[in-house]
Amino acid sequence: MTENVKDNKTNSAKKVQATADEKATVQRYNWVERWTHTFHAIAMLVLLFTGFAIYFRWDFVTFHNARAWHMIAVPVLIVTNWFLVPYGIFSEGYAEGGIKGVVSHFKNGYIFGKDDYLRLKGMILNFFGKQAEYPPFTVYDKKTGHYVTKLHPMFKILIVLEGMCIFLIFITGIVLYKVDWSLLGLPIAEWITWIFNWIGQWFNMNGLELIRWVHLALTYFFVFELIVHVFILEFDPKVFKYWKSIFINGKEDLDGPVVEVVEDAHHK
Q: 123 pLDDT exceeds 60?
């Protein structure tokens, strides 16, 4: 009888501790990551709006103004993605464990792996009613005080695609900006056009036609990505905490159904 009482008290204590852990507030994003995401979002929205304004010749904004704002947003997006994002990954990973921490942080946080496949599979099964629970996509290691992963597995796929698309839309944009653009005497735009001329012959298109088509197609991809990005977040019933975390204070309450708190950084 006494042993049963002790066991019950122990179990109750564990439940209380688990509840306390689940309600813990931790730092999800530092100020660099928050500003990076904010600048990225603003630049992307401006580019999409002005890009469509230029293409469809919308009457409520002049071609000159749309083009000017488009060219202002381009360097913001480039600096954000090619400089601030790598800096954020390096600084966050280094704080976790030096150079090894950087590699581990990048691998776990941004590369789609086996665990992400299993989570994504469970999410698809849940969507079609074949699995009761929606798998957690935020995993926090209580022992190290750092995230194992904090991205939805679909985001990890989209991040790779987005990086490739940003590069392609940038180089095609160079030619659309100025067909003879050069840097330090190097005919960059001519080289890009030559490459697309070579590819375009397989589609019965010249280089400039293919460049325009690719640039527009990538624009629609970014619209698709934006919709998916927001839609996935809505799966969490406590979605506002993510908006607050990424745009306001960088903190997250570990109390959502898609959050898992683990004891081992090598959690599988």
A: yes
**Per-residue model confidence as pLDDT tens digits over 42-56:** 999 999 999 999 999
Place of tokens 């898609």: 258
The conformation of residue 183, written as its DSSP 8-state character, comes to B
Q: In this predicted structure, what is the pLDDT of residue 98?
A: 85
Closest CA to 172 of 108, 137, 114, 215: 215
Q: Which residues pair with 141 in a beta bridge?
A: 146, 262
Express each pLDDT in 87-106 by its tens digit. 988 888 888 788 888 888 88
- Cα-Cα-Cα-Cα dihedral sign, residues 156, 145, 231, 83: negative
Helix, strand, coil share (%) of the chain residues, nearest 5: 70, 5, 25
Place of tokens 């990890």: 156
pLDDT given at position 166? 95
Closest by CA to 231, choosing from 133, 158, 162, 122, is 158
Render pLDDT for 160-210 as a digit per residue (tens, 0 to 9): 899 999 999 999 999 999 999 999 999 999 999 999 999 999 999 999 999
Strand partners, 183: 186
CA 261 to chain centre: 22
d(CA 34, CA 248): 8
For residues 228 and 230, what is the distance between their CA atoms, to the nearest angstrom?
6
First to last CA, the chain: 38
Torsion sign (Cα): 75, 181, 213, 157: negative
Closest CA to 211 of 171, 151, 241, 239: 171
31 Cβ neighbours under 8 A, 6+ residues apart: 250
